[in-house]
Amino acid sequence: AGCHSLVSVEGAGLVGDPIELAAMKGIEWAYNPRSSIATPGCSTVYQNRLNDIKQRKIGEGPEPKNNTAAAKAYREKMKEYAKTEEEIKAARAKAEERARRSIVRNVKILNRFHFISKLQRMSVIAEVQTRNGT
């Protein structure tokens, strides 16, 4: 969760090493590039997905009035959205529970040493806060 090379680019979100991006997603941690702090749980990611679904539903407009193929297609689309919303809510709840059980409260990058080709390495100095205050 030290996020060696992840940076936030306006309009593009979090970018950087694909392995680090995949790792953050896999361990379900969130990284705030403004504060350089990573925290367990990624509720904001799930909330953004729910907001996206909500906007898509709004974009569909009102249900067609008569019992046409368009009305049937609309209802099917709404069922798909509802199913997706439930899946996202369940995943968010699991991520939040794992975050509550984590002994780590957050990881803050204090200093970032970018990749040096000659040395073939990069590193960070990070402060790790645990739930018991250490």
Strand segment count = 6
Rg of Cα set: 20 Å
Mean pLDDT: 84
If helices are DSSP runs of H or I spanning 4 or more residues, what is the number of helices?
Answer: 3
Assembly form of the protein: single chain
Query: Which sequence of strands runs across the widest sheet?
Result: 3-4-5-6
What gross morphology would you assign?
elongated
Unreliable segments (pLDDT under 50, ≥5 consecutive)? none
What order do the helices and strands follow?
EEHEEHHEE
**Helicity level, as a percent range?**
40-55%
Beta-strand residue fraction: 25-35%
Spatial separation of the terminal alpha carbons: 17 Å
> How does the helix and strand content classify structurally?
alpha+beta
Report on the biggest sheet.
Answer: 4 strands, antiparallel
Task: Describe this entry's structure for a reader.
This protein is an alpha+beta fold and 134 residues long. It is 46% helix and 28% strand. The protein contains three helices and six strands. It has helices at residues 18-27, 43-60, 69-101; strands at 7-9, 13-15, 29-32, 37-40, 104-116, 121-130. Strands 3-4-5-6 form a four-stranded antiparallel sheet. Strand 3 and strand 4 form a beta hairpin. Helix 2 (43-60) runs antiparallel to helix 3 (69-101). The two termini are 17 Å apart. The model has no long low-confidence stretch (mean pLDDT 84).
Short recap of the structure:
This protein has helices at residues 18-27, 43-60, 69-101; strands at 7-9, 13-15, 29-32, 37-40, 104-116, 121-130. With 134 residues, the protein is of the alpha+beta class.
